[in-house]
Amino acid sequence: MYPSFAFPACLRLLVIWLVHVSRLSCDACPSPGGDTPRSGEELTWAVHLNPPHGPETAEALDALADELSQSSGLENRGVIGELKDHYLFAYVGDARCHGDARRKAHTLFTEHGHVRWYSEQKLLKRSKRSLHFNDPKYPQQWHLHNSDSPGMDINVTGVWERNVTGVGVTVVVVDDGVQHTIQDIQPNYSPEGSYDLNSNDPDPMPHPDGGSDNHHGTRCAGEIAAVSNNSFCAVGVAYGSRIAGIRVLDGPLTDSMEAIAFNKHYQINDIYSCSWGPDDDGRTVDGPHQLGKAALQHGVIAGRKGFGSIFVVASGNGGQYNDNCNYDGYANSIYTVTIGNGTLLLRRFNIFYVTSDWDLQKGTGCTEGHTGTSAAAPIAAGMIALMLQVRPCLTWRDVQHIVVFTAIRYEDNFAAWETNGAGFSHSHQHGFGLLNAWKLTNAAKVWESVPYLASYGSPAFKEKRSIPLVPGRLELNWNVTSSDLQLSGMKTLEHVAVTVTITHPRRGSLEIRLFCPSGISSLIGARRSIDMDPSGYMDWTFSTVRCWGESAEGVYKLLVTDSGDLSGGVLNQWQLTLYGSSWTPMEVAERRRLVEDAQGGQYLNSNFSLPCPPGLQISEQEQYTITSNTLRVRCVCVILCYTVLYCVILCVCVILCYTVCVCYTVCVCVLYCVCDCVILCVLYTVCVLYCVCVILCYTVLYCVCDCVILCVCVILCVCVCYTVCVTVLYCVCYTVVCVILCVCYTVCVTVLYCVCVILWV
Ligand SMILES: *[C@@H]1O[C@H](CO)[C@@H](O)[C@H](O)[C@H]1NC(C)=O
Ligand SMILES: *[C@@H]1O[C@H](CO)[C@@H](O)[C@H](O)[C@H]1NC(C)=O
Ligand SMILES: *[C@@H]1O[C@H](CO)[C@@H](O)[C@H](O)[C@H]1NC(C)=O
Ligand SMILES: *[C@@H]1O[C@H](CO)[C@@H](O)[C@H](O)[C@H]1NC(C)=O
Ligand SMILES: *[C@@H]1O[C@H](CO)[C@@H](O)[C@H](O)[C@H]1NC(C)=O
Ligand SMILES: *[C@@H]1O[C@H](CO)[C@@H](O)[C@H](O)[C@H]1NC(C)=O
Ligand SMILES: [Ca+2]
Ligand SMILES: [Ca+2]
């Protein structure tokens, strides 16, 4: 059997209210019908006094006013401004009896000899009207104004009336995206503070997705900063603030993506609203890993000009599994403000919040079905935005302190409240209690920064002590002495943390308690019946805020019990870490008084303001962390770079090569040409020479030949000629000879004949 309420001890606050209607009866003084004033209104009269005989001195008037006050039973509120003979009288009593009081006062003032004139003061209709919003769902936003059960809302309307609406403050919703185009968000949307880590672009617009509907971030954004009086949907808690979105939950989430989200635009974004965390299924023990932790720490040191980013996280909805926000490292971190909704209450009253919604898939831009602690964290973020408008230089620790100092203890059947040594009430169920915007802003107005964060770490005790089964228990002590604290100057506590390494075959059966020196105990590790994990706790840090404001000096006790049936648990190591400041317990008490005194609203009403240091100029540095996305981007970058480089190199190479080639070619060409030329020349010359020679030779030869031929020809010719000549000559000669011979013959013959004939004859 486990105790029914094994709940966390972290800085958890409630933002929930009962909606139960309890009408007051009015039997003492029956109301004179019709004119029943609403609670909160006060009956006051301005009275012009006619001083008694003698000098008209202030003393005489005061005495007269006091006398009137006594005889009428009304409270004398003193002179009205500079009107020295006008006094304000108020009826302080049951609102149900106003009718009666009004009649009595009327009779008294009319009959009194020294009252020259009187008038009942009406509430300024002007300021009343200013809060009549025309947003259709505003009447259903019970968490903003709850006239049925006053005290169960965040009491924000009075803050708005004083023009505190979050102006100048930016809240960022770290979630699955923010649809910034819908009417109720668009005018307040801050693109400068936004980013999309899932797609790595500056626009956190949610992606419509059949399986998991990505409307969560948009709804949270609406709760914080939905535009007021625009005739659409609802009104945000800090409707004057700017709202940004970081889309990170729509896809695989890595440690480094978380780290980037926690520091994204941290000089623009003041408050990070994270309505998510590890599975609160009653068995998970997880939290921010190395980078996430470092980012939270870096955020509170360097964010918001060095005043520190405010991280608001939901404590998870795991209450029904006996879960404990100490198993959630976000809720457990000293850098966060953790908001819970109080499982039991919400389950009983089935409360839904009205807020903006996306309209990407069937949505209308407005919903009435937003529930859970994820609905509570953004409301708290909105309230912190109101505080930061009032006093922009509050540090992250100032915000935590103010929350602790002003949370209202809330009684129900389930909460076991304990008051610690500094007078703060805390319950494991409801943390410090309900947040109240009025109290927060009034306290913020007069809040001067707490001293520096001081811390003390004990040595790491290597115990190796076995954890006995119940009724046995393992008890470990450490005495923190004043000399231990001297170095840091710590006097009072804020967070107290214990880091343990425990091996156990079934860690859900362990219960771990821490006792502060004052004796108050914190259940830092509750039994979780369904946590069967056999690996125990490896360097897990549990923390508590139950010792807030107490003196840091004294003996701390760690108590481990094992109520399971598997023995064998061993506590290997433990270490105590204290966080606090140099405030003395007296100074804490003094500050509590100051905050209490400011609750009348007198500082919020006036122009009063404490000086604020300007803060540091810190530039937003880009973080060199790797996520699957950045990896992807980086890959693309690398590929691109390589491509470009490659191209460039290629180009250069090509150009070089080309140049070289050209040069080479040119050279070669030139050389070749030259060579060619030379060769050509030589060749030519040779050729020419050769030719010439040849020609010459030939010519000569030819000539010679020719000559020879000629000669031969000539000779031949001559021969022929000769022959011809000879022939001709011969012929001629022959002919001539012949002729001559013939003739001679003939002549001789003839002569002979003739001679013969003559002789004969
Ligand atoms: C809201 O708008 C109406 C006009 O539509 C105006 O009369 C009213 O004063 C406005 N309320 C506030 C709070 O500004
Ligand atoms: C709520 O706010 C009003 C001012 O609007 C203030 O007078 C009242 O005291 C506040 N109530 C609580 C419980 O803080
Ligand atoms: C609030 O602001 C409005 C407009 O700026 C101004 O008229 C009004 O007087 C302010 N009210 C207070 C209480 O400061
Ligand atoms: C918060 O409210 C939701 C919705 O009613 C409920 O289911 C859940 O158990 C609650 N969680 C816590 C831790 O209060
Ligand atoms: C703790 O240490 C202080 C200083 O040494 C000593 O005075 C005190 O008695 C110790 N307390 C216990 C319980 O040992
Ligand atoms: C507030 O400041 C304004 C201008 O700075 C001034 O006019 C006004 O009188 C001041 N009001 C009060 C109550 O001091
Ligand atoms: Ca995008
Ligand atoms: Ca609206």
TrEMBL record:
The keyword Glycoprotein applies. Keywords: Cleavage on pair of basic residues, Glycoprotein, Hydrolase, Membrane, Protease, Serine protease, Signal, Transmembrane, Transmembrane helix, Zymogen. Residues 449-584 form the P/Homo B domain. One of its GO terms (biological process) is protein processing. GO terms for molecular function: serine-type endopeptidase activity. InterPro entries: Galactose-bd-like_sf, Kexin/furin, P_dom, Peptidase_S8/S53_dom, Peptidase_S8/S53_dom_sf, Peptidase_S8_His-AS, Peptidase_S8_Ser-AS, Peptidase_S8_subtilisin-rel. Residues 204-216 have a biased composition (Basic and acidic residues). The chain crosses the membrane at residues 643-674, 681-701, 707-730, 737-760. Residues 1-26 form the signal peptide. Residues 182-217 are annotated as: Disordered. One of its GO terms (cellular component) is Golgi membrane. The active site is at residues 175, 216, 374. Pfam families: P_proprotein, Peptidase_S8, S8_pro-domain. It comes from the Eukaryota. Residues 182-201 have a biased composition (Polar residues). PANTHER family: PROPROTEIN CONVERTASE SUBTILISIN/KEXIN-RELATED (PTHR42884), PROPROTEIN CONVERTASE SUBTILISIN_KEXIN TYPE 7 (PTHR42884:SF28). Belongs to the peptidase S8 family. This is Proprotein convertase subtilisin/kexin type 7.
